[in-house]
Design goal:
The protein is of the alpha+beta class. Helix content is about 40%, strand content about 25%.
Length: about 375
């Protein structure tokens, strides 16, 4: 027998209305008294830090507290009296009918079960919940109770996950930097040893010293890249204007675009909301992506830049070059500095840092090469 939770609510049809939602009446109370009781019950659950959803006997949501809204992204007025509990679920999407759904539809008791609910605007975000039946004094099914757990605990887990993502991101960048700096250091050491070897003639020694100077410049460029992405300012806000920063990045590369006679085609959405990145970092990300496109685009061709409001509270950005220079042989990972050397490696380091910064803040950066090189960004809203 399923464990029963007793609650003195009748298994009657919904009739009183609170905020547009029909709620179960109480035979012992007048309609006004029943409405007052439901308002009290709603206020009680509203104060809980756990996500709570309560339904009537037909499965329609009667109470949806603020913590549940913080989990799933719904406002109470979008759910209460409008949706059934299984409308929030993931199981039925996979062809499985939850036990509570069958129980409520047939008016039968059902065992407690664990299900997954899906966030309103992001099907990738799911939350486990325990669902049990609510029963009257005589054992009749009155509805269902879903508990999503503690919002504070969930946020703590999310913070821990973001910390782990950040650590992984830092690890990848450090690995790339170690590679990028180690190679010129080894070359610098060898060049200095040969350049200072008195047994070599003057012309050869001068050549080795010139090579050493080149490697020093290479290390300097890597340090400048880091300072460009990570300046010593701890007071930056996570709010950036995508269109403004795209145009600013283009302005810094205006000379390079003119030299290659590259035409830029714009399709920028108006009134885009700010995204959750630091402005100077996002501008440098755009600049790195545009520099990479300039390396591969054919002279006299075009680059298209598009922005629009994307799904799941994000802004989408597309940077594409058509046509691109054909690549010889297999194409290495464009985000892996270890796959390149010298200038291409530095550009790949820029891309690697760019992608890790975007991922760290909850976005994504992908590259495709269907008809040319294309970068697609999804940036979370501030």
């Amino acid at each position: 027998m399923p464990k029963k939770t007793s609650l003195s609510l009748p298994a009657s049809r919904f009739s009183p209305v609170i905020s547009g939602a029909s709620l179960p009446p109480f035979p012992e109370m007048t309609q006004d008294q029943g409405k007052i009781f439901w308002e009290w019950l709603d206020a009680f659950f509203a104060k809980l830090t756990e996500g709570v959803i309560l339904t009537g006997p037909d499965g329609r949501v009667a109470i949806f507290n603020e913590a549940a809204g913080a989990f799933l992204g719904y406002r109470p007025e979008e759910v209460v009296g409008r949706l059934f509990l299984w409308d929030l679920g993931l199981n039925q999407a996979s062809g499985y009918s939850p036990l509570f759904k069958r129980g409520l539809e047939n008016g039968n008791s059902f065992p407690e079960e664990e299900v997954e609910f899906v966030a309103k605007d992001d099907p990738q975000r799911t939350f486990k919940a325990r669902v049990c039946g609510l029963y009257g004094r005589e054992g009749e099914l009155l509805g269902a109770f879903a508990n999503l757990g503690s919002l504070a605990e969930h946020r703590a887990v999310e913070r821990e996950h973001r910390t782990m993502v950040r650590k992984v991101s830092i690890g990848k960048i450090i690995s790339a930097l170690a590679h990028e700096i180690n190679n010129p250091l080894q070359s610098l050491r060898t060049s200095l040893e040969l350049g200072l070897d008195s047994r070599k003639n003057r012309r050869h020694r001068a050549g080795y010293l010139e090579l050493a100077n080149t490697e020093i410049s290479r290390i300097s460029q890597i340090v400048m890249t880091l300072r460009r992405f990570y300046p010593s300012n701890d007071h930056e806000t996570l709010s950036a204007d995508v269109n403004f920063l795209l145009l600013a990045a283009l302005e810094t590369l205006k000379k390079d675009f003119n030299q290659k006679e590259i035409m830029v085609e714009f399709d920028l959405a108006e009134d885009l909301p700010p995204v959750r990145l630091i402005a100077h970092q996002l501008q440098n990300i755009f600049q790195s992506l545009l520099q990479d496109l300039l390396e591969t685009v054919l002279p006299g061709s075009s680059i298209t830049i598009q922005t629009h409001s994307g799904p799941f509270d994000a802004v989408s950005v597309t940077l594409a070059s058509v046509p691109a220079q054909p690549l010889e042989g297999s194409s290495p990972d464009q985000f892996d500095p270890l796959a390149f050397s010298h200038r291409q490696g530095r550009l790949a380091l820029d891309l690697s840092i760019s992608r890790e910064i975007i991922i760290e803040h909850g976005g994504s950066l992908e590259m495709g090469d269907e008809t040319g090189k294309t970068f697609r960004l999804s940036l979370p809203l501030a």
